[in-house]
Amino acid sequence: MKKRLIAPIALSTALIAATLPQGQPLAVQPQEIAGVQTKSVKQWNEKANVPLFVKEKQAVKRMAATSNDALNYLHEKKSTLNIKNPKASLKAKKVEKDDLGMTHVRFNQTKDGIPVEGSEVIVHYNKKNEITSVNGSYHPSAENAGLNTTPALSSSKAVDKAKSAVKAPDKLTYAPTSELVIYPFEGNDHLAYKVNVNFLGEAPGNWFVFVDAKTGEVVDQYNAIMHAEDIKTQTGTGIGVLGGHRLLHISQTKEPNQGTMFQLADYSHEGLDGIFTYDYSNNRIEMFKDKDAAFTSDFDRPAVDAHYNSEKVYDYYLNEHDRNSLDGEGMPIQSVVHYGENYNNAFWNGTYMVYGDGDGEFMIPLAAGLDVAAHEMTHGVTTNSANLQYRFQSGALNEAFSDIFSALIDDKNWELGEDIMAPAAKESGRESLRSLSNPSKYPVNAAYVPYGNGDGMYPSHMDEYYDLPRSLDNGGVHINSSIINHAAYLTAQDIGREKLGKIYYRALTTYLTSLSDFSDARQAIIQSAVDLYGEGSAEAAAAAGGFDSVGITE
Asked: Where does the PepSY domain lie (predicted)?
């Protein structure tokens, strides 16, 4: 029998803000430039990335849909696009062909071979090899600046400074990674090491720290917690947190001094590296296992739900969007349960989902919610596609896509987290975490109120937007996301859940980039509807209407 290795588990996104009570791109207003229809967006600071969405009025026929041809096109249009020397500053990242026959060529902006953080340009071809649009994000200042790209600081010293800055524990989940980048920040371009430090513990972290490669000073940092044996796969059973009987795919193995054991390890899906569920109750990650194929104890129940729900979400993305796992290439789907003590949260840490058991008063074990699993796993899809930066509007989009797909997968209503609210929370009127149909039914944390319109409720419209600083909810990722949530809900009322899912999935995986904002999302979602259903279609009108209704009109 073939030896199978239990996959090891290795950016992170919390389900809710930690303070929950009780708890620029190449886009463009239409103007015609050299036959190109463009829309301009105000820069967020003097040297900000320039948002970009350039749409050809008439598709431009090309020799082939390749990275070389796309680069030649960008060179031809460099004055229109305000890119001084595309052939020197853009490096091909990926070429993808989708189910519509369209080809999408992604480029990263670089300087002297060093990537410019957050800057991507995507060239889109139709199936006739005609270029239809260009979108993304570009940073002109980095191209023009006389920045010395030779570091004075070593990578190892940058890692040490990053670990110190975030007060990392001695024991880390993974060895920190370090990458030299150009980091535009607050009007200046820095040569910096982008260091990722990941750890669990009482205050889990998936920190990105930007250390100046000349001076050693920390320029910026943010926590991206979004919030071998012979193995025989077989069927097992279990009981979930809410008493539901679950049919599970598990594995049987023989272990020294323990005999036959049954593990929550599923190898039954062709092309998938497996679905695994782990236990963290002893403050270390261990495969969840038992001597019996029936996982029925109270301790087992969160693991049963995590394992079962992971497969449900995997099936949705495979069947509805032809996506094989979170990265589209069969990466293992991994969950960790029994994390922390009275921990009212769940998060994606870049490679796996982590679920707390709740405190029994505000929440029960979070693994109980199919929508919670869908939310966290969608963060994994986002990490492996648009990779939306987890702060301000890009971070709010990150959260919104997770909320939206959670409501498409767990489709009994438009609420998130209703199955994990404890009795006391429900008695106090908190029946779910968030609502897509009526976001303003719930209050935000008191600390956020001064930054809004004074109502203190989750926003449903841009008139109610919370202008939060980075220090509060990473600039409102869990708060302002509800505006995008509501736009999606309104669109779905006209075209249904299935079409909404197809449109939003295409926008996430085809058009959005790491620094996309709400205006970029509108452009991407409308264009995705046009790609799928045609210019002037009811679906494209519904996509635009959803955004119009929440005050995102350009």
From this structure: 153-222
